[in-house]
UniProtKB/TrEMBL annotation, chain A:
GO molecular function: ATP binding; ATP hydrolysis activity
SMART domains hit by this protein: AAA (SM00382)
Domain of life: Bacteria
This protein's name: Xylose ABC transporter ATP-binding protein
Membrane topology summary: Peripheral membrane protein
Keyword Protein biosynthesis listed: no
Swiss-Prot/TrEMBL keywords: ATP-binding, Cell membrane, Membrane, Nucleotide-binding, Repeat, Sugar transport, Translocase, Transport
Family annotation (InterPro entries): AAA+_ATPase (IPR003593), ABC_carbohydrate_import_ATPase (IPR050107), ABC_transporter-like_ATP-bd (IPR003439), ABC_transporter-like_CS (IPR017871), L-arabinose_ABC_transporter (IPR053466), P-loop_NTPase (IPR027417)
Subcellular location: Cell membrane
PANTHER family: CARBOHYDRATE TRANSPORT ATP-BINDING PROTEIN MG119-RELATED, XYLOSE IMPORT ATP-BINDING PROTEIN XYLG
Species of origin: Sphaerisporangium melleum
From TrEMBL, chain B:
Membrane disposition: Multi-pass membrane protein
Protein name in UniProt: Xylose transport system permease protein XylH
Main location group: membrane
GO cellular component, one term: plasma membrane
Transmembrane intervals: 41-61, 73-92, 98-127, 139-158, 198-218, 239-258, 264-281, 311-331, 343-360
Subcellular location: Cell membrane
Function field: Part of the binding-protein-dependent transport system for D-xylose. Probably responsible for the translocation of the substrate across the membrane.
Pfam families named in the record: BPD_transp_2 (PF02653)
GO MF annotations, alphabetized: transmembrane transporter activity
Entry keyword Transport: yes
Positions of the UniProt region annotated as Disordered: 1-20
InterPro entries tied to this protein: ABC_transp_permease
UniProt KW keywords: Cell inner membrane, Cell membrane, Membrane, Sugar transport, Transmembrane, Transmembrane helix, Transport
Amino acid sequence: MTDDILRMRGITKTFPGVKALQDVNLSVRRGEIHAICGENGAGKSTLMKVLSGVYPHGSYDGEIIFDGEPCRFSGIRDSEHRGIVIIHQELALSPQLSIAENIFLGNERATRGLIDWNRTNHEAGLLLERVGLHENPVTTISDIGVGKQQLVEIAKALSKKVRLLILDEPTAALNDEDSAHLLDLLRGLRDEGITCVIISHKLNEVIAIADSITILRDGRTIETMSMEADHVTEDRIISGMVGRDLENRFPPHEPKIGSEALRVEDWTVYSPTQRGRKVVDGAGLTLRRGEIVGLAGLMGAGRTELAMSIFGRSYGTDISGRIYRDGKLVEIRTVRDAIKHGIAYATEDRKRYGLNLIDDIKRNVSAADLARLASRGWINENEEFRVAEEFRGSMNIKAPSVSSITGKLSGGNQQKVVLSKWIFTDADVLILDEPTRGIDVGAKYEIYSIINRLADQGKAILVISSELPELLGLCDRIYTLSEGRITGEVAREDATQESLMHYMMKGQEQIR
Amino acid sequence: MSSISPTSAGVAPGGKDAGPALPPGRTKLFGASLNIRQSGIYIAFALIVVLFAFLTDGALLEPQNISNIIVQNSYILILAIGMILIIIAGHIDLSVGSVVAVTGAIAAVLMVNYGVPWPLALLITLVAGGLIGAWQGFWIAYFGIPAFIVTLAGLLLFRALTLTVLGNQGIGPFPDQVRTLANGFTDGYLGNIGLGPLGGADLFSLLVGLIAIAGMAASQWRTRTARQRYRQSVDPLPLFLLKIIAAAVVVLAVVVQLARFKNLPWVLVLLAALVLGYSMLTNRAVFGRRIYAIGGNLQAAVLSGVKVKSVVFWLFVNMGVLSALAGIIFAGRLNQAGPTAGGSFELDAIAAAFIGGAAVQGGVGKVVGAITGGLIMGVINNGMSLIGAPSERVLLVKGVVLLAAVAFDVWTKRRAGSAQ
């Protein structure tokens, strides 16, 4: 028998309306590096949250056996107590505190309630040596780069006597050099007997470092392979990740493609938080009337950033490039400019960026184009009511009236309110960012029908989605984005999940 | 197993009986609790008035006392109007007390020391208030410093400026016209009329009251018919009439009492105009809607093309102008601009807004609510002094009322959230 440090059996986790995990099994051998791969939304992060107690025992079905003992974690402290430490994609460091303070945050080196600073900094120094970070422990976190911050996270994990280290996309924000160093460090930790679970989209790294791999798809375990024994290649992983049939989930649609509506050229955007980091790099795309165009890319590829920067520069700094509307060069500096030029952007995060959740449907629908309902600054509320009622009917928004508070609607109905709001602006170009995220299957079909209808009305539509089947089922043409660059443009007939995934993952190497 | 199923079967009929009865009861309860959240403040106000009318043997509702409550609280109510707008947008203004002082001082120096004609002096003072608001609005909206900090600095800055302008002493007296605006009453243009057992009352005041009631009723009726044309749901006619009549009775009662005393206070006329205007602004104007959008979800407002910075800037300009108005009225009432004028007015205005139903996170609130909140504190102040309560007890009660009002708001919100 193999010596498994961790066995998760029959894990099922449901959110309202969505089955995120279904009967997932995961076995990790002691002292190995185990990779978990899968598309966005395949359930990797959810599985890790179940393991680390973020979702406490009782909120999921199935069992977790760690080191031969069944575990019932009620919180992250419980799992850390057993030596399971997770390092999230977004680093959880306090930027204004020192390295040493961060390492021992919540776990302070203290005697009788007073922090022993000598001990804190001394022990922090030893941990930094172990992870190969040559910095003074009193250095402030914000003064070191992301790569080094990642090492601080690992040092923090080591301080908790970690036995199973979980890394969620550890190299996503790192450059090649830092990535290589991190991978070396993980190999070193393995030799010290620490087991690692690594979630990564970078398949070359997975091939290079992992001993075995588990592939998830649609919330299920597809397969677990030993890298050496099974001669795993990148292509083999990709086919495991996407191998699924397109079901009859999309309404049929015959596109009637017209003239060019939007063209973006040489679009470059820098990150507003990390100086000098290009988030979008010389991207270009063209949208035509009546056409539904997809934008595919992995998490962090810059999809939302590209869209928002086009939409009145609502993301990013030092933006350069040209936008043509109906063939004419236009200058779009603010969201108002964008709306005026007939561009709409429906956000991927409707609760944070899309809706005023404490206000009602009609006031949300009218929010982006109030001027249409007003004369000399005074709103015609009866007209507003009528317009909103029309949308409630045509979009099939399920609510007792347009005076219902949007915060109380289901995800699908909230999304319909967001779409109504942008349709009301009479935009010709609609950028829809993850239009079906967190929506149940029935409502998804309705949203697809709405999108088709909009295209038939002659609108140009860009759909951003993490779900490749959705793009393949809905779009007439698909762009792929990787690390801020457009790496491919594929017509629907030629597109397969495999080909898109190749562009999304290997794009960079193919370009060079 | 078999022993359990009969019991549960035996329970089932009773449960079934309760079943159909419960949902209507629950929805009714839910509907009522929703109503309480919106109208709780007015019910609370009515209860407090009744309570103090009782405790003071009716002295609270005597003609002169009603007039006093209005005049004594007018400047706080004016400030509360500006404050509620700022709080709806998710900001705060701690400087209004000092702005009241400095604008009162400016008005006094202009009129008393330099002999500037009073209409011009009033205009200059209002513009000065606007400039002060623009100064703070710039740092908040365009420079991005939290309003709490900017206006805390303003609280110190404008108090310092007051002392400088006044040379650390009171300046007065004010021209009669300014004193009349702050403290005076409309003339008995049409003479008196006998009201039977109530004695003589000013006919002009009564007529103004009746016209106001007629106007209110007509406008409500127009709104109702317009909504019906658009096939929106409206209150059933009896309820609609009941609401109008109730409001008319309250207005009429106040007006009659005022007419029996000294006619209408000018500040009441001013306040009525402000409340009407700002209620229209918040309910019906694009600008007003923007304020709610910003406070409700700032990010969504930005992505809907709302010029957030400009809206916030103008809100503070507006607050400055209203503070100047309050400053003139306060100084005119005392007939002197003093170095300590307006102390802790900001706290009263903020308390009025929150008692009146504003949400701490912004996005919620009504002008009429803030006015009611201000009147609740005014009635508590007045009523407790009538029964001879010491000032420490007045403060205690006001503190408890503020805490209770916000606790109630948080509680109803949480319940609404958990019901979902």
